[in-house]
Amino acid sequence: MSVIYIEPFFHKKENQIAFRFKYNNEIKEYIKQLKSLRWSSTNKTFYIKNTPNNKVLVYNHLKNTPWKVDYSAFKKNTVIVKPTLTPERLSFFNDFKKFLVGKRYSESTIGVYSGFVYDFLAFLKNTNLKEITNKHVELFIEEVIVTKAYSISTHRQLISALKQFTLFYPETAMTNLELKRPKKSKKLPSVLSQEEVVDLLRCTKNLKHRAIIGLLYSAGMRIGELTSLKLKNIHVDRRQIFIENGKGRKDRYVVLAESFMPLLKNYFTTYKPTTYFVEGTLGKPYSESSIRKFLQRSCKAARISKHVTPHTLRHSYATHLLENGIGLRHIQELLGHSKPETTMVYTHVAKKDLLDIRSPLDIIVNQLTKTNKREQNVLLSRNL
């Protein structure tokens, strides 16, 4: 039986309620029915604000489900407070954040790395920083990564953060070379068929939502690139979109699909955005969480049972380009990948070459159909 662990934790300067469980799409979709539910990329968990009303809401929502709910970590009146650092240690931590800013990391990377280092410093308590060894790191990993069942990618991010910590403060007894990241999970990306993409667009009735899905797929954009896309960077005459300061602080151009133009003009005429391609309230960038939510509704309407995220559309774009004969080098440029190895993953999911491979069963059946020299009730092998 699947188990849902309800746990208190501190996030974004507030007490929160976390939902932890082994991946189960049915559980995920049921939990997402809760109002005000949010996703933490740093902690890899769904959560809502820890309030008395929300405690009752969570209990009532989960009490009649077929899954076991574990509240053992969430005792009545328990308040989880972010551990505080001494003024000296806090000043040290702020200097580390400035160090990351100076290395020109993105805001999200700075947030993730600094969050891990803050927790690490709190875990060390009063230990002299010059006496920190790799053993302290191992104990921290056992307490944070193992007990909270964080993913391999989160574990790798933690090690990357601590490697930056050793560069910032080399006086520790930690050995940078011995801080090894666990190997990446070699999971193939989920990809929609071309027919499913068309069904997804047809079943998305809201014009703004359809324009978002259409651009995500037709240009292979990341969700953050779309929400930050400004109107001035859409060059209709040249049929190009200028992606400014994409992942890795790289600029690039992507193709503005000719078939997307009628939808784009209809969207502009109806919604009249002023600054960004798609805008939320008061002209601010549209919420990424809103895109994920309506995408799930569209998938349900299109009867697509796969786990689909905005990034799935990017994976599908790259795979379909490869299947249509576009070279890996061009795909790498369009996607904005730094390394060709990253783009190579699509060779494992593209079906173009695989369709040319005949299954040995097809070959056997084809030969028997042509020759038809043996009776159907006679065994073909010579096994006794």
Main attributes?
384 residues, alpha+beta, DNA polymerase, domain 1, hpI Integrase, Chain A, 3 domains, five-stranded mixed sheet, CB
Going by CATH, the architecture of the largest domain would be Orthogonal Bundle
CA gyration radius, whole angstroms = 26 Å
Strand content: 5-15%
CATH C-level class of the largest domain is Mainly Alpha
Q: What is the number of beta strands?
A: 8
Span between N and C termini? 45 Å
Polypeptide structure, described:
- This is Site-specific recombinase XerD.
- It holds the Pfam family Phage_integrase.
- InterPro entries: CB (IPR044068), DNA_brk_join_enz (IPR011010), Integrase-like_cat_sf (IPR013762), Integrase_catalytic (IPR002104), Integrase_recombinase_N (IPR010998), Integrase_SAM-like_N (IPR004107), Tyrosine_recombinase_XerCD (IPR050090).
- This protein has helices spanning about 25-30, 50-60, 85-100, 105-125, 135-145, 150-170, 195-200, 205-220, 225, 260-270, 290-300, 310-325, 330-335, 340-345, 360-370, and strands at about 5-10, 15-20, 40, 45-50, 70, 235, 240-245, 250-255.
- Helix 7 (about 195-200) runs antiparallel to helix 8 and helix 8 (about 205-220) crosses helix 12.
- It is α+β, with helices and mostly antiparallel strands and about 375 residues long.
- The protein is built from 15 helices and 8 strands.
